[in-house]
């Protein structure tokens, strides 16, 4: 009689164990469901910091255009208050710092990213760097300009290109930097 009772209980335990393992081993869900995949095989993970803040709110994700002049969003928009420091995400050389169509723009060619090199662009930014300057990851390259934002709230548009091809700038960042929520430490049983 005990064996017959154990079978359903044991089956449930095994099912719970299998489901828990599947959840723990499953890849994390996409960071932004409406976006194209975050990873891009042509983009090395050289980013070491977000351009603004520690984990800025994404106002609009990357939406690659189907054609060269088609609709889309050729970068990501990150919420940031006017005056917020804007940082270089990776090491490189400032290829442009000035105004384009009335907006402050800073572009940085990223070191060691192939030919043509990857180029990140940040706007609207009041530049604190000049063309030709070398920058390190996390170095302040300017501040968020109070005017020129195309978002409903002030934001920084962060773009990435290789030559004439637009790429997802989130691809520059390592997965641990993209994760939402706090890190969690699990207990180590039997440790003294």
Largest sheet: 8 strands, antiparallel
According to CATH, what is the class of the domain at 58-178? Mainly Beta
Stretches with pLDDT under 50, minimum 5 residues: 20-41
Question: What's the Cα radius of gyration?
Answer: 22 Å
Shape: globular
Distance between the termini: 43 Å
- In sequence order, what are the helices and strands, one letter per element? HEEEEEEEEEEEH
Mean pLDDT reading: 80
- Please report the number of helical segments: 2
Strand content: 25-35%
CATH topology of the domain at 58-178: Glucose Permease (Domain IIA)
InterPro entries: Cell_wall_metabolism_enzyme, Dup_hybrid_motif, M23ase_b-sheet_dom
Pfam family, one: Peptidase_M23
Domain M23ase beta-sheet core: 72-169
Keywords: Hydrolase, Signal
Tell me the layout of helices and strands.
Blueprint: H1 2-25, E1 58-60, E2 76-79, E3 85-87, E4 92-100, E5 103-110, E6 118-123, E7 125-127, E8 134-135, E9 140-144, E10 155-162, E11 165-167, H2 175-178
Antiparallel strand pairs: 1-2, 2-10, 3-9, 4-5, 4-8, 5-6, 6-10, 7-9, 10-11
Fold and architecture overview:
- This protein is α+β, with helices and mostly antiparallel strands.
- It has a domain at 58-178: Glucose Permease (Domain IIA) (Distorted Sandwich), CATH 2.70.70.10.
- It is 15% helix and 28% strand.
- The protein has 2 helices and 11 strands.
- Strand 4 and strand 5 (103-110) form a beta hairpin.
- The longest helix is centred in the first third of the chain and has 24 residues, at 2-25.
- Mean pLDDT is 80; it is low at 20-41.
């Amino acid at each position: 009689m005990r064996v017959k009772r154990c079978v359903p209980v044991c089956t449930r335990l095994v099912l719970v164990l299998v489901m828990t393992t599947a959840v723990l081993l499953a890849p994390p869900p996409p960071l932004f469901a409406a976006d194209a995949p975050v990873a891009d095989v042509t983009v090395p993970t050289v980013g070491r910091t977000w351009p603004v803040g520690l984990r800025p709110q994404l106002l609009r994700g990357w939406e690659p255009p189907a054609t060269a002049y088609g609709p889309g969003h050729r970068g990501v928009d990150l919420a940031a208050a006017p005056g917020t420091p804007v940082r270089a995400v990776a090491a490189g050389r400032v290829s442009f710092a000035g105004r384009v169509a009335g907006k402050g723009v800073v572009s940085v060619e990223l070191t060691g990213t192939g030919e043509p090199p990857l180029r990140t662009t940040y706007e609207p930014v009041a530049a604190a760097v000049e063309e030709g300057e070398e920058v390190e990851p996390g170095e302040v390259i300017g501040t968020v300009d109070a005017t020129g934002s195309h978002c409903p709230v002030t934001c920084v548009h962060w773009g990435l290109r290789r030559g004439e091809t637009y790429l997802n700038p989130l691809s520059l960042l390592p997965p641990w930097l993209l994760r939402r929520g706090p890190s969690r430490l699990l207990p180590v049983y039997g440790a003294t």
